[in-house]
Design goal:
About 45% of the residues lie in helices and about 25% in strands. The chain is α/β, with parallel strands linked by helices. The protein has a five-stranded parallel sheet, with helices on both faces. Strands 4-5 form a two-stranded antiparallel sheet. The chain is globular.
Length: about 120
């Protein structure tokens, strides 16, 4: 079973992602604190990491670098946010994330994850 780690400070978003992607056969590990990212990625060795773009105390650039320094350096990292597309594109390129995805329609998330992970 493919594993996805989602870092988002919203319990509701983490829950929706877990339900939607869990129904597609993925194991989802949700965390809410940036300080838990490296430990969780090392422990769970995910196939994909979803990162909320703006979290208290840390921005996406630092989070992507933190994830890439661990075992996630080979897995796709998606910035997951409700920010405007133009900002997301710039932040994705600057951070080294694989791509970005706007929060909203869970079916779009499921489609993108399936495209990346099969």
């Amino acid at each position: 079973m493919k594993k996805i780690v989602i870092l988002d400070d919203s319990e509701i978003i983490r829950g929706i992602v877990a339900v939607v992607l869990g129904a597609q056969g993925y194991a989802v590990v949700g965390i809410d604190a940036p300080t838990d990212l490296a430990t969780t990625v090392e422990r769970d060795d995910p196939d994909l990491v979803l990162l909320d773009l703006t979290l208290p105390k840390m921005q996406s650039d630092g989070l992507v670098a933190l994830a890439r320094a661990s075992s996630a350096k080979k897995c796709p990292i998606i910035l997951f946010s409700d920010r405007p597309d133009a900002e997301l594109a710039i932040r994705t390129a600057a951070s080294g994330a694989t791509r970005y995805l706007r929060k909203g329609d869970p079916t779009v998330l499921a489609r993108h994850v399936k495209r990346l992970l099969g």
